[in-house]
Amino acid sequence: MERFISTWFVSAVALCVAAWLLGEHMNIGDSADGTGPRVLTVLVVALVFTVVTAIVGPVVKLLSLPFIIVTLGLALLVINALLLLLTERIAEAFDVSFHVDGFWWAVLASIVISLSQTIVNAFVNPPRREVRVFRG
User: Fold this and answer.
1) Domain with 109 in it
2) 26 has which bridge partners?
3) Is 34 domain-assigned?
């Protein structure tokens, strides 16, 4: 449970960074809303995104493994963009304001999100170092 909440938080921050960098091409929440409703919207979108990448992502990546290998991993960009667009559709079904301008903006957003997640995750979940003491 702790790992899920950590991943959810990291995804929320990464989605905010992507929305900030992409400007009008990726919107989370309504600009007329106050801070509270926008934070709630970000948390809901991040929750949907976390669940989609945790459940749908591994299945799609496993089924696409030969294509991922042939393209030397570039197919992962397409898969991640499609997962982001799926997140948009699911959020839309729940009447949550989240929009990406199209496939290529989703590809760019997925790159930004991946980089942001890596950086934020390094601070939230730093690698643990074991200290071993050898006694002779």
Assistant:
1) 2-124
2) 100
3) yes
- Residue type at 94 in one-letter notation: F
CA distance 42 to 57: 20
Asked if the model's pLDDT at residue 22 lies above 80, the reply is yes
pTM as predicted: 0.85
Question: Which residue, among 7, 96, 13, has the nearest Cα to 53 in the 3D structure?
Answer: 7
Considering the domain boundaries, does residue 136 fall inside one? no
Q: What are the backbone angles phi and psi of residue 100, rounded to the nearest 5°?
A: -120, 135
Q: Using CA atoms of 110, 114, 116, 122 in order, give the dihedral in degrees to the nearest 10.
A: 170
Position 33 in a domain: yes
Interior angle at CA 113, CA 109 and CA 117, nearest 5? 175
122-125 LR contacts (CB < 8 Å, sep 24+): 124/6, 124/9, 124/10, 125/6
The domain total for the chain is: 1
Tell me what pLDDT residue 34 has: 83
